[in-house]
């Protein structure tokens, strides 16, 4: 047995597609994370209130929600899992570059909407591709997918913060898009060859429309799947609130500059980089619910404690610890969903989950902005502690599906 097989359970060659998909996921999150870093200088430049800035983030989530109505079905019916991954990365990067050239708020809203669509359109083809190809190593494969996201979320704020400080937010948006376009090219060269590889589970490349609708009715009727989607929706609502308002809190309440804000947001992701693969492998052995409950319980305590951390250094340390437990949960939830879903409907099940997440998330920035205008930004953290507490309660009612016992 080779070192790669002992470490990952797979030969080195079989890790290549996983690594490429993880790289693409990192590029998708690089684009979104850069947008969040652009938000404070962008909102100050345009004279936006907290409510207006929150509404701009809500546009991101609304467009993400809408994309789920077509992305999952397209993936399952056409079977073109790799092509849609490449298009998502390339189109999102183009929209990010165009933000730096946007002259009006209306144009900016349209570009943010495009980023939202491409960000969520990535997940159905990527998650179903990995889930079908690696059914016995699903937790591991999707943890590397999540690791890519955490890596992109870690590096992007540092890069964007430095670029904003050096060149201003307009130029920073344009320059930040270049690495993402490079990743799209790498995927086109390295991953497209796997488009014609038949999944080891025997599932076909695509299915008929009638078969698709018959299957999706079965998925929607599954109470465990719907419960998992709702739970994931509350978790995503909490995460979106943190991403939207942490930069604003650091800038306005703690007086942090763009470089320090970038360091702080990166610190939250570093924990995810460390914890994600560990959580994925652990969930393959111990079950999904055990790992999810551990991460969500710790997240509840940490979010409630953030308001008591007065210094900038202590606050950054607190959100770094938060990232360790909160982001470790993400790929485990995705694996849990794939455990419960027929292989040929993986794209649509992923769309159902991410559609629920977007539906829950799109109201959070607007409501949070109104709350901040009325009571200050610190009040948002109490609201987020409440939403993550609800996630804990919902998780307790879900079945502890294990990969070896799932369909």
Number of helices, where a helix is a run of at least 4 consecutive DSSP H or I residues:
15
CATH homologous superfamily placement: MFS general substrate transporter like domains
**What order do the helices and strands follow?**
HHHHHHHHHHHHHHH
**What's the CATH architecture?**
Up-down Bundle
Shape: globular
Distance between the termini: 29 Å
CATH topology, by name, is Growth Hormone, Chain: A
The total domain count is 1
Strand elements, count:
0
Characterize the structure shown.
The protein is mainly alpha-helical and 407 residues long. The protein contains 15 helices and no strands. The protein has helices spanning 3-8, 12-46, 50-78, 81-99, 105-133, 138-167, 169-190, 209-221, 223-252, 258-286, 288-305, 312-340, 346-361, 364-375, 378-396. Helix 3 (50-78) packs parallel to helix 5 (105-133), helix 6 (138-167) runs antiparallel to helix 7 and helix 6 runs antiparallel to helix 12 (312-340). The radius of gyration is 20 Å and the shape is globular. The chain starts with a helix and ends in an 11-residue tail after the last helix.
């Amino acid at each position: 047995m080779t070192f790669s097989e002992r470490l990952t359970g797979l030969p080195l060659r079989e890790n290549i597609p996983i690594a490429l998909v993880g790289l693409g996921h990192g590029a998708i999150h690089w684009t979104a994370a850069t947008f969040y870093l652009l938000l404070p200088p962008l909102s100050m430049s345009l004279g936006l209130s907290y409510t207006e800035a929150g509404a701009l983030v809500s546009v991101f989530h609304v467009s993400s929600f809408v994309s789920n109505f077509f992305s999952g079905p397209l993936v399952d019916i056409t079977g073109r899992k790799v092509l849609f991954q490449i298009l998502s990365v390339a189109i999102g990067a183009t929209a990010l570059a165009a933000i730096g050239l946007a002259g009006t708020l209306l144009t900016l809203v349209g570009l943010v909407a495009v980023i939202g669509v491409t960000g969520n359109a990535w997940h159905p083809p990527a998650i179903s591709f990995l889930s079908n190809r690696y059914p016995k190593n699903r937790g591991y494969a999707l943890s590397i997918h999540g690791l890519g996201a955490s890596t992109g979320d870690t590096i992007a704020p540092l890069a964007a913060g430095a670029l904003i400080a050096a060149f201003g937010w307009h130029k920073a948006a344009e320059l930040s898009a270049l690495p993402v376009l490079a990743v799209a090219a790498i995927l086109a060269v390295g991953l497209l060859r796997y488009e014609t590889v038949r999944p080891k589970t025997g599932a076909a490349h695509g299915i008929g429309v009638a078969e698709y609708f018959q299957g999706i009715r079965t998925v929607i009727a599954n109470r465990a799947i719907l419960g998992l989607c709702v739970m994931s929706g509350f978790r995503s609502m909490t995460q979106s609130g943190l991403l939207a308002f942490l930069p604003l809190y650091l800038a306005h309440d703690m007086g942090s500059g763009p470089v320090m804000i970038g360091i702080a947001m990166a610190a939250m992701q570093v924990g995810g980089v460390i914890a994600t693969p560990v959580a994925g492998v652990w969930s393959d052995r111990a079950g999904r619910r055990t790992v999810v409950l551990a991460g969500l319980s710790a997240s509840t305590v940490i979010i409630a404690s953030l308001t008591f951390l007065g210094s900038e250094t202590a606050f950054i340390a607190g959100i770094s610890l938060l990232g360790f437990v909160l982001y470790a949960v993400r790929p485990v939830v995705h694996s849990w969903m794939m455990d419960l879903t027929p292989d040929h409907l993986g794209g649509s099940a992923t769309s159902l989950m991410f559609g629920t997440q977007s539906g829950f998330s799109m109201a959070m920035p607007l409501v949070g902005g109104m709350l901040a205008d009325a009571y200050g930004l610190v009040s948002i953290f109490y609201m987020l502690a409440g939403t993550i507490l609800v996630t804990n309660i919902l998780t307790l009612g879900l079945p502890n599906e294990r990969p070896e016992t799932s369909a």
